From TrEMBL:
tRNA-binding in keyword set: no
Name listed for the protein in its UniProt record: Alpha-galactosidase
UniProt catalytic activity: Hydrolysis of terminal, non-reducing alpha-D-galactose residues in alpha-D-galactosides, including galactose oligosaccharides, galactomannans and galactolipids
Highest classification ranks of the organism: Bacteria, Pseudomonadati, Pseudomonadota, Alphaproteobacteria, Sphingomonadales
Domain Alpha galactosidase C-terminal: 384-458
Protein species of origin: Novosphingobium organovorum
Enzyme class: hydrolase
Amino acid sequence: MDGKTNALSRRRAMQAAAGLAALPLIAGAEGARAEQTRAAGAPNATLAPRPPMGWNSWNSFAGTITEAQTLETAAIMAEKLLPFGYDVLTVDIQWYEPDASSYTYNPHPVPALDAHARLVPAPNRFPSAQGGRGFAPLAAKVHALGLKFGIHVMRGIARHAVERDLPIEGTPYTARDIADTASICSWNPDMVGVDMTRPGAQDYYDGLFRLYAAWGVDFVKMDDMSRPYDAHAPEIEAAARAIARCGRPIVLSLSPGETPVPRAEHVRRHAQMWRISDDFWDDWKMLAAQFTRLENWNAWMGPGSWPDADMLPLGRLALGDRDTHFTPDEQRTLMTLWAIARSPLIMGGDLRHLDAATLALLTNPEVLAVNQASTGNCPHFLADETRVWSARGADGKARHLALFNTVDTARTVRVPLAAIGANGAWSLRDAWARRDLGLAGQAVSVELPAHGAALYTLTPRA
């Protein structure tokens, strides 16, 4: 069996596993409430039945990525990550900015615009976009590799379009008629808000997503949306309406967080992913904080409803200046937490410098199966500074158990199986090592390094 055939077989096996029916794990009152919430379902769950997996350009390219770099990355992604389910390639912020050069923003941008106040790819960076073609030629090449194509966009309408007072397609209104110039992003100068009470406002958003659909966009990460949430809720709703009318299935991901948990019902009605924190980078304090956030959001996680702990800052980062600051143990903790809590898995590192250790971390099929196919995911609160999660496997019988040591020294973590509702006899398997460990006994105990994690699969013994 050659490499491509073997990779395709692995991908099909994972997808088949993810499609199997599974029984919920009810672990106490919190688990029961979580299952009741999930059972209610999310609108448009078919848009994202499993946590999206892919790659995003921000952690490695900032706002500078070009068409050539996108295609080079897409080819690597199709070869090395697509067989394991990573299928969404997203061009992040500033693709419309001809002079983007780093992680900072031009205070007076002159972005590329079409005649109807909509941002288009900067032709000096994306030459195939010339002649009004936009991202369509690039998306077609990405699709030909078997990948989906995503873009980052900002809330609102371009400040430069308002200054030029460009017309809104199909209406008698202009950019100034719909702009809310008092609604501005605190960290990016490109846009102003859209006042959804004004005539032409929804038409603008409808036209925006019609354009994206015509380009072949499959995924939109929409920024400056979730904070402050209530102030931006009308534009969240406008984007969701526009997607429903655009004629193409597009997954909507809202950014940045922290999205407020009390707005969970609203956000999952209108988006399939939403950030639960501000930008996440390779810093242990940031990673430690994500435990509580994912625990708080657990009841709202399920098909079409994915609380997003943000991208995976692994490998080469920051315009090639450095490798991740996470230790190997912290990298395993990151992947284990994102897997058991079923956060979307979006790689952020530069794939052109993908090393063997990072590739192995991203593509362990037993870990990915937890992220893509487990159910009844539930945190357990057993001891200070120890985090424990469990879930059911795709077959409804196996159990997954994730153990985390969040202190700065090594320690033994011990979990009685009865504490996670696993009574009877169980066989134990180390998911990271992909090795059977024999009979589990009445408890699972492991010595974990500082900031370390373990992930096990338990199967009932006949």
